[in-house]
Amino acid sequence: MSRRCFSTAAALAAASLAAPSLRAQGRIEKPRIALAVGGKAAFYYLPLTISEQLGYFKAEGLDVEISDLAGGSRALQALVGGSADVVSGAFEHTINMQAKNQFIEAFVLEGRAPQIAMGVSTKTMGSYRTLKDLKGKKIGVSAPGSSTNMVANLVLSRGGLKASDVSFVGVGTGAGALSALRSGQIDAICNTDPVMTMLEQKGDVKIISDTRTLKGTQEVFGGPMPAACLYTHADFVKNNPNTCQALANAIVHGLKWLQTAGPSDIIKTVPENYLLGDRGLYLASFNKVREAIAIDGLMPEEGPRTALKALASFEPSVKPDKIDLSRTYTNEFARRAKEKFKA
């Protein structure tokens, strides 16, 4: 009997000690979040849209206000300028910023391939043969400095061209991009889906580089290339761990849903204007990029190294020996979210 009493007392004592800790883990430091994204209608950010539309952020106790900007570089500027707490954007920005001695950290992955394709206009470049034909031409990207710009730079560098050999034009990731290419305002385009599939299927472009599949990404980058993720200042992650955990939970919940979602589920969930007036082509685009969407929010070990190698190949300011990749991301929050949702 005395042993039982002692065991009960010990258990109660342990519970009383653990209770404050458990409460601390559940308390969200910043329930209202300003989140910036550049081109939210693109499949690149589909996990963000799904998590928002299905109420997964609210389910985690968050009030997330999403600002949709012209491109990823604008979203990054919002974070640096203080008008955004968190960005849904390309992972490589964490490396670029560290090269400028500013530390931002990715904490949940949305895409495991860039889902970016580059094509030349069949209208203005019908005689295209090699990358050198792009010298002096206008290339449309979502926004200067964005991930689409980065992929375009990488493709050009492999043809012996520098960024200064062409003119980059910001065209967004929606109807404006379609119009710019079809009207002849640009000679080539590097963009995401559904824009690229729509241009491709209508015969408006000839695809010359494609990272919408894992195989295509391997061919272009030589390894796994992380794409969209949630990132923020390293200090924000340190000071708001429960908030970051809630955000990661919501995204991984969305990724889990996407694993089994059918075409009709997608159509019912995304806003009507994301379809760009053609449901069939939108779904064709989704099928093309589906494998590029992250599964569980975890950053693959080789991914950051691939990104660093790619950036260093055309960006002189990025010195591989000066970049600490361990400070560009953490899998701590995604790992817990994966366990929670069995993703």
From TrEMBL:
Belongs to the bacterial solute-binding protein SsuA/TauA family. It is found in: Periplasm. Residues 1-24 form the signal peptide. Keywords: Signal. The lineage of its organism: Bacteria, Pseudomonadati, Pseudomonadota, Betaproteobacteria, Burkholderiales. This is ABC transporter substrate-binding protein. Gene3D superfamilies: Periplasmic binding protein-like II. It comes from Ramlibacter aquaticus. The keyword Ribosomal protein does not apply.
